[in-house]
């Protein structure tokens, strides 16, 4: 599938989800400024989809990762905007004059899924790339899960700086390292 087709498909998913968006029975009890703002953004479907489309087309389409066990969750290439430490932002202004700045990947997740998030919700990247806004690389989670993602990335040999990080280390004295796995005889017959 080409990136152009993937963009078209994601825009169709977003349009369907925005069309079917309904407030939860607890909407009034859960109201926050951000939730109210996004409720209005979802209601202005045409403008919101144009912004989403511009973001998707503006993003640099990265090559897919080499498939490894630690990269199995995001096998397709990232759509990147901004920098790892400073991802792209979105500023939107409503007809009421309200405006807000949002990280692009958070905006993409909420719009594509037509899902209002709570302030404690974070967007996790299955690709470990904060500048990525490809919808199938984004999942919602907690701050604790996000820290666990960082630990898993570092354990897999990709440092805290993200893609392209080089990890160095030392091997303890007396430990033998071989690139060829050796068969161990467990003595079981």
In summary, what is this structure?
The chain is an alpha+beta fold. It has helices at about 5-20, 35-45, 45-60, 105-115, 145-155; strands at about 60, 80, 90-95, 100-105, 120-125, 140.
Give, in spatial order, the strands making up the sheet with the most strands: 1-2
**Amino- and carboxy-terminal Cα gap:** 50 Å
How is the main sheet built? 2 strands, antiparallel
* Oligomeric state of the chains in view: single chain
Mean pLDDT: 81
- Overall geometry comes to globular
**How would you classify the helix and strand content by structural class?**
alpha+beta
The tally of strands reads 6
Number of domains: 1
Indicate the proportion of strand residues: 5-15%
Elements, N to C (H/E): HHHEEEEHEEH
Poorly predicted segments: none
Helix % is 25-40%
Which radius of gyration do the C-alpha atoms yield? 21 Å
* Number of discrete helical segments: 5
